[in-house]
Amino acid sequence: MKNLYKTGALFFLLWLLAVAGCKKNYLDPKPLSFYEPSETYVNAAAMQAALAACARNLRIEYYGGNPPILTEMLFTDIAVEGTTDKSGPAQDLNLLITPDGVTFNNDDRNKIYVYWTEAYKGIKYANTVISRINNATYASPAERNAILGAAYFHRALRYYRLTHQFGDVPAIMKEILAPKLDFQSTKREVILKKIKLDLDSALLWTTDGVSKGEVTKGAVAHLLTKVNLALGNFDEAIAAANTIIAGGTYSLMNSTFGAAAPPVTVLPGTKVPVNLPKNVIWDLHRPENKSLAANKEGIMLIIDRFGDGQFGTGMTIMRQAVPFWGTNVNTPSGKKGTFDNLGTELIQSNLYGRGIGRTRPSNYAQYEIWDDPNDLRHAKGNWMNMEDLLYNDPGLRTTNDVNYLQPVRLRNTSGGLLTTDTIRSYYGWPQYKLFIPDFENSPMQGGHTDWYLFRIAETYLLRAEAYFWKGDLVNAATDINKVRNRAGCASINAAQVNIGTIFDERARELFYEEPRKTEMTRVSFLFAKTGKAAENGKTYTLDRISDDNYIYDRVMAKNNFYKLGILTNHADKYTMSAYHILWPVPTPSIQANSNGIIKQNKGYSGYDPSQQALDIIPE
User: Fold this and answer.
1) Check: CATH 1.25.40.390 for 47-255+580-592?
2) Which pairs count as long-range contacts for 5-9, CB under 8 Å and 24+ apart, including other chains?
3) Is the full-model pTM beyond 0.85?
4) Interacting residues of 178 by C-beta distance below 8 A, sequence separation 6+
5) CA distance linking residue 321 with residue 445, whole number of Å
6) pLDDT tens digit sequence for 356-396
7) Domain definitions of the chain by residue range
8) CA angle 519, 522, 525 (to 5 degrees)
9) Where is 241: in which H helix or E strand?
10) How far apart are CA 582 and CA 561, in angstroms?
């Protein structure tokens, strides 16, 4: 029988070989469909699908593990990388931020390479629409122009970010249909002038009557305000901001709204959450309120819903930015004090999230900017201090420890520290911004929520900045006070206005929203371009921008970690240099571009002062 099986198998193999020898085309693939751009982008629906890819690409900055926005934050005055149990996270920036040291997408590293690659992906999607805009059919010229305006916005947004993250970069303004190895860096200001023209057109073509997550006329005007500021067109920046502020579609939310539950606290000695008074700051940042029709503040939103597939775990914002409070926190009796899992009588992880302390605020962000005791953004329930947590470790209950369900403390009665890691495990945080209920992770890490990309509070602060550059400090103070007063703060006067006070207000209002490094770099170039003295009394020049600049001076004045060169428990030192105003262009992009020149920035390996960027957009 075994021989029979062998013989049958041999005949079958010979038959296969014979058939293959006679007719090989049975091996040819037979695809079920073809992707042919000329056959795909033929109508408005197809173009909208390409724009949806642009919108989806925007989400990467804020969602998932160690989202790139945290890298933006750690190059500024407000925060540092808080991971202290290993080397590799971006703490010693002088050592780790190199052209080769940023070429990965690793949650234990920085996300500079992600910004570079994802920006050019977004540009690619937008260029597909722009290059093929006349190949499709539309219901009306207005429909065609609205799609083109949205594509211009998406491309302009990526270039606005790239030019303030990396400086001079390749300007790709059309769809690339074949391999290309001869890219050239184009001057930052040339790119900004080009995207300004595009946004001027887009402002005429887009509308505000679109679905949440799509490009609005307000979003175009908001970005145009930033680009005009970057170019020093202060009157045009004010005009662009005015289209939002005076347009009637958007407004600051000044009273409570929506049906979201108010913030909670847990009283010492208890285990039951108690509701605090409802307030507008809390409501403004509740997941269920951001896309409400009643919410007039959001100019453009990033949409994220459970089950959409891209980020199955949502934002994980509580994991990233809440301290690692469940570990390294002891009681005055020397016992483990806190427990961030579920097996305890008081499950604080469901109230505040299980954090790992990746984004550690500076003392400036925690303490120094809070200049008004009535500020709702720093009020109990909206803001959490470690002392608002209670000792909840189940071991304390079983041993009848007197500290059980009492407030956490930093020091004992003798002044000794009760935490072994003050960097990662002991700091305050904006609970109103970070508390995102999580129904997929247990304990909670921060679930699904829409997120503000632009909102009108920032528009007021941008217009205030434009007034500052013009020397109109009265109007600048008026705009800043719109934001301050909404939060319950007293007004400032014109004499108090400078770029520092504007950045203070941005830090209070836009934590985890604004790309702060981008905005501080933009302002640094403006100080160098205008020669205007900063609040520190210094003036700057463009020819020394990588050696002496505003962002570095402000970070060293405000961020205690970089200023003092603080060491982590892992003996990594916090360092930063002036050349970090621009990030290094990743090595793979330079090396793969064998027939062209992509400039490296000063301060990094591969910098060549003889290499010049183009002063025109290449064809």
Assistant:
1) yes
2) none
3) yes
4) none
5) 10
6) 999 999 999 999 999 999 999 999 999 999 999 999 999 99
7) 47-255+580-592, 273-295+304-449, 465-568
8) 150
9) helix 234-245
10) 20
